[in-house]
Structure formats: C-alpha cells, structure tokens
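Aim 2 progress. For NAD(P)-dependent oxidoreductase, the working sequence is reproduced below.
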Amino acid sequence: MKKIAIVAAGGRVANKVISEAVNRGFDVTAFGRKDENHTQAQTYIKKDIFDLTKEDLAGFDAVVDAFGAWTEETLPQHSTTLAHLCDIVSGTQVRLLIVGGAGSLYVNPEHTMTLSETPDFPNAFQPLANAMAKALGELRQRNDVQWTYISPAADFQADGKRTKLYLRGGEELKLNDRGESIISYADYAIAMVDEIEIGNHRQERISIVRA
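Predicted structure tokens for this construct:
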C-alpha cells in the first residue's frame, strides 16, 4: 500500500485527490491548518506548510503539494512554500507532485510563448499565472528532488463531471479531439493518483486534458 501525504489539504483540489487515493486503498495523511479533519484522509495533522519538517514527511512514497494563494500579498508563497517542501525531501526518493497551473504551458512548438502571454488570457489571472510560472522555473533547477509538476487544462472546472477519461500531455497546451482544453477537478485527481501509482515522470512537467 502506498503512503501519500497531502500538503495544504484544505482546498478543493486536495480533497478530490484525497478521496481518489483513499478510494483506491492508499494510506493518506492530510496536513492542513484547520482544527479538524474535513477530508477522507485516514490521518490528519494540523500543521502549517512552513512548519513541516523532514521527519513529518519521512516514510511517504509521495507528497502532493496542493498549496494555493490568490492575493497579492500571498502570491509569492507559491515559490517559498515549494522551496521549503523541496528542501524537506531533497536527496530522498520521496516523490513530490505539485498541483500546477495552466498559464505556463507553451502554445507553440518553439516554446517561446506561454498561454498566459496570449491576448485572450484573462487579466485577472495574470498575477497568479506569473507567480506559479516563477515557482515552476525555480523547481526546474532542483535536480535533488524527485518532482513532477502537473498542469491542468486551461478550463479547470471545480464542479465538472468525473468522466475517468483524460489525455496526458507535456509542456505544450494540449487540446482534445473537440478542440477543448478542459478538465474537471475530479478527473485531474484521477490523473494525479495515476501518476503516483503507475507514472514515472520524474523532474518533468506533464499536463492533463479531458479526452
């Protein structure tokens, strides 16, 4: 049985990943800031991400970083929290899987333009996309960590259906046969747990879109 830790477990994506993993029989520990466990994780530990130590994450097969921040003051924490987690698992075989963003996906084969740089990208999401792209760039420099960065499709739907059908891409924005870039949180969670269970995309960014 694989042992998985979910960090920043209070968010909706985290809850989907936890539910998917538990339903598959994984041993899941959730770390969050709430007083009580509002997830399906078998174990819950109240602890801020910056307070986590090497001892906290030792013995897990994989750690899922579901951290999210949206305000101007907290956006830099995409970089600082990820750096902290990398330091904790540095030099170990513990996999670190990051719930990423779509804005940094490339939209051309030359990899000279990202989705966030296209004219139709919403201005409201630009600061978040920039912060997450910066964190990804810093992550790429970490050769001491078994990381996998998983970007969702451009249209990341919290209440979308669980279809169990998805396509896996790489660094470029991937469209399905209908020309869509869309994925539900539920299907994203399936892809995340699949990567933990059978995937081996170490020190790579992959992307997920509904089939």
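Strands lie at 3-7, 27-32, 43-46, 62-65, 95-99, 146-151, 155-157, 166-169, 182-184, 204-210. This observation will guide construct design in the next reporting period.
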